[in-house]
Amino acid sequence: MLVKQSWWKKSQQINYASRASIDSTIKRPFTLNLKTLNDTARAMVAPGKGILAADESTATIKKRFDKIGIENTWAHRRAYRDLLFTTPGFEQYTSGVILYEETLFDKALDETPIAKLLASKGVIPGIKVDMGAKPLAGGAPEETVTEGLDGLRERLEKYKAAGARFAKWRAVITIGEDAPTDYAIHVNAHALGRYAALCQEADIVPIVEPEVLMDGDNDIDTCEEVTDLVLAAVFGELYAQRVALEGIILKPNMVIAGAQCNNQNDVEEVAERTLRVLRRHVPSAVPGIAFLSGGQSDILATAHLDAMNKAGNLPWGLTFSYGRALQAAAQKAWSGKNVEAGKAAHLHRARMNGLAALGKWDTSLEKSA
Ligand code: 13P
Fold it and tell me: Cβ distance 202 to 249 under 8 Å?
């Protein structure tokens, strides 16, 4: 009885606290265009479609071009991205494309502005707005915090005028000897909240990307534990910073053993654990979840997404927002010369992932291709 009474008192306090914050939410100094945000977010996770992450910074695309012996010049970046965006039929499987700033303001090879070209195919243009993950002062040696909040409100207006309807901000959480610290999780979650609130103010859907890196030697249990902590922190910040969950897309890592771990789990285990963690933290108000591929092989990234959609009965749309797993084959096939082969490889991976987003993929489809 005594226990019950004190629990009751505590719950009353919690209720008062949350009522106070609901009151102040109503006094939001701007009108949130929730319908526009929700329409865009739902279109981003339309059935059988996902997002092409082609927003590599100039430094990151250099790493990709180095692998195929291509010099990292503006002309090569433009030609390569033109190949992606003029692939016939890719729009059947692609709801949106995340662009790097250079590309958003660039023109296709036929001089059509890129954002206009994408929109003409029914593909929504998006923009990476973070300024990268920088070393975290006082954190564990490998920890970072993502920068780019200063001046973001003004940049968002510029991006919106150029046609961007959604944005991306990637926070990076490393698993290591002494990492992640609560400190790193907290500052990254806080920045994601601030970014998301600013995007919604500008009618731009924020893709909220807290990436727990999958390239260490940790096992799947550790990845599950860390992903659990990170998502709890992120959704806490989104709530505290008055972000409307109906107008976001979550872009998480899957729950998977690090690439250097000797014990790799089967597809079903990864799918089951990933769904378990997402169900714990992601309210059904969120229209969709679009995974990053994080260094998984093309086929595994597709197989994992497919297995989760085959499980069915999910409260959110579940799709892809892959960079490497959509582009690696296209880059290799292109290698700076063979545009048609590059387009064919891009279309194939887009189609495979489109099927996985419906839970209708099968390995035999890879072999026949
Ligand atoms: P990967 O799919 O290569 O992990 O990239 C997705 C992305 O956009 C990371 O921010």
Answer: no
pLDDT band at 29 (very low <50, low <70, confident <90, very high): low
d(CA 215, CA 240): 31
The DSSP result for 193-210, as a single string, is HHHHHHHHHTT-EEEEEE
- Rounded CA gap, 34 and 20, in Å? 22
**156-195 confidence digits (pLDDT tens):** 999 999 999 999 999 999 999 999 999 999 999 999 999 9
Ordered by where they begin, the domains of the chain are: 31-368 (3.20.20.70)
Q: ∠35-351-210 over CA atoms, to 5°?
A: 55
What is the best residue among 321, 327, 349, 353 to mutate for testing ligand 1's pocket, by most ligand atoms within 8 Å of CB?
321
In this prediction, residues 253-271 reach a mean pLDDT of 98
Nearest protein CA to atom 10 of ligand 1, as residue: 170
**How far is the C-alpha of 84 from the C-alpha of 90, rounded, in Å?**
8
DSSP 121: T
What is the set of active-site residues? 209, 251
Token pair recorded at residue 282 = 């992601």
pLDDT score, position 28:
57
How far lies 317's CA from each of 20, 41, 50, in Å?
32, 10, 10
For 58, half-sphere exposure in the C-beta direction (CA atoms, 13 angstrom radius) is 10
Total H helices, total E strands in the chain: 14, 10
CB of residue 324 inside a 6 A radius of ligand 1: yes
Q: Which atom of ligand 1 is nearest the CA belonging to 170?
A: 10
Q: What is the pLDDT of residues 125-147, one digit of tens each?
A: 999 999 999 999 999 999 999 99
Q: Which tokens belong to 140?
A: 């564990």
